[in-house]
Amino acid sequence: MTDVVQSIEAPRSQWRDVWDQFRHHKGAMTGLFVLTLIVAFVVIGPLVWRVDGTYIDPDAAKMILGRNKPPSWAHPLGTDQVGRDMLARMMLGGKVSLAVGLVAMLVSIFIGTTVGVLSGYFRRMDGVLMRLTDLFLSLPLLPLLLVLMFLYGERVKGVFGPELGTFLLVVLGIGVTSWMHSARIVRGNVLALKEREFVLAARSIGTPSRRIITRHILPNVVSAVMVAATLGIAGAIITESVLSFLGLGFPPDFPTWGGLLNEGYVNLTTYPSRVIFPGIAISLTVLSVNYIGDGLRDALDPRIRGR
């Protein structure tokens, strides 16, 4: 009787199998836990620690004792060179850095997926799109971003304002210059999928190419896209941090973790905590996202699922 009951149980969904495989990946679960804490720190933290990270206390800025204070109960992470609370600035900077990483990843994945699908499915477009991909791969990313910020930074800031203009320029710059690897991954998957029986059957009955792509191709490349997306977030956060560290990112009164590093490294030997805290935040975020990407890659691979 038990065998009969078990035989009529509903089949397990694919996503439940993916989750079961993912949660047995210790590195991925640790990364997910750490990333959840970081997101809670930057999103929920300001609701608890109600201190304006951009407020400059005139009295503290004038007095030497009010600047670069070490961690204390009043300022758990100390203050900066003009007396601003570093804990509040870490929360604000983390929110900006994570937003840049997420939005830049979405731009990159959208472009990469579009190019990869078109290149893999339409043979006549493959040569042109892959040569375009090779062209972008040959360009040095950081110098190209520096040139974009130098040429168009002031113009975009004048139109959208310093904060929004810098955000749009950084996000679009990172997204437009980092889609190539996801395009190649998607193209490889599409080349294999379009020769599968279900795609050939759909083509044989006259199904339009647009419908084949949206109904049969894209759902089967989502796993590769998800893995590329997680790794893209980490890359975008590092790139934004480098730009801010070089002084070409957001303005000083709009902090990011890279900007905090730029402000603190001048007094590294005297006040090391000014560099240690944002450096640890960047490292933990990138490391946790990379571990999550590794876990997703293993969980979404049907060849090793269940091991």
Structure description:
The protein is mainly α. It has helices at 2-7, 14-23, 26-43, 45-48, 58-62, 86-121, 123-138, 141-160, 162-176, 180-193, 197-204, 209-245, 257-264, 273-299. Helix 2 crosses helix 14 (273-299), helix 6 (86-121) packs antiparallel against helix 7 and helix 12 runs antiparallel to helix 14 (273-299). The model is unreliable at 1-9 (pLDDT under 50).
Helix content range:
over 70%
What string, H for helix and E for strand, traces the elements in order? HHHHHHHHHHHHHH
Parts with pLDDT < 50 across at least 5 consecutive residues: 1-9
Q: Beta-sheet strand percentage?
A: under 5%
Record field, number of beta strands: 0
What is the terminal-to-terminal distance? 30 Å
**SSE-based structural type:** mainly alpha
Radius of gyration: 24 Å
What is the 3D shape? globular
For the largest beta-sheet, the strand count, sense and barrel status come to: none
From the structure above, extract its key features:
disordered N terminus, mainly alpha, 307 residues, single chain, 14 helices, 0% strand
